[in-house]
Amino acid sequence: MSFCYEKYKSAIFSETIEKKFESIALEAFNYQFNNNPVYRQFCNLLNIKSQNIDTINKIPFLPVEFFKTHKVISGENNVEIIFTSSSTTGAEPSRHYITDLSIYTESFFRSFRIFYGDPEKYRILGLLPAYLERKGSSLVYMVNELINRSQNKSSGFFLNDLISLENTIKELEKNDQKYILIGVSFALLDFAECSDIIIKNGIIMETGGMKGRRKEITREELHSVLKNSFRVNNIHSEYGMTELLSQAYSKGNGIFRCPPWMKVLTREVEDPLNVKATGNGGINIIDLANINSCCFIAISDLGSVYPDGSFYISGRFDNSDIRGCNLMASQYQ
User: Is the pTM of this model over 0.90?
Assistant: First the structure.
């Protein structure tokens, strides 16, 4: 059966995607096996035969490191934009070559509506200095589109202008207006230390990452500081990355939930080809919006996936812990 791109796009964002997730994921696998040279060679390295893949647990997951070393593209369409990751000095950034920007836009707008409703309901405040200071951030692109869609003059990026941000929030609180402050972890900590505000009508959403600006702390420690500073019961989180075109969200306690076209699985630490629907281990992600790159990615996070599909990130592999997936990546190069 030939692959119909427009039919596929319609299917992954349809109301029936949860019931058809596995069959569509298998369709995406077969398409990328045949149309993504990097993924195909990776599968060949593992001696994977496409005809033997009949469940999502058998699909091979491409180590996320490949986005740093290879051009991961499915199909032959022209590249519209390249999203790049932030990286420490001297490290190679990830590059995600986007051949259909509309699928990313549809993905993040639909996901936002699922978890928070229409952006027009909120003032969107972006505190993302580490991302705004470089080009190619998919997070900045998303937040900028949410700001535009909110259609409110109070929405916008604040870079390092924490005084202006504090004044804006005080004005929004005074007028009982809803808002979402989306910030990178170190910037939210900076803001918490220098501001004196009580959050009643807003949502604080962290996107993770100290970006070398502060000492790394756990998500629990970060949330504890922010909750105490802003007098809120919960801190929300966005879980996304350069290599994905979909995001998961947490509304508290670090428990993330995915939109229907995204699924998180776990893999054995010692045997990365042993993939399970639930349990503890390395994190594998199926992002069906990634049809033009790779939908099946093994990332460097450790965590737990629960029977209802929600998940928790407990940490990251360090260099001594990374075995199977990075070994396969190094063998491929």
Answer: yes
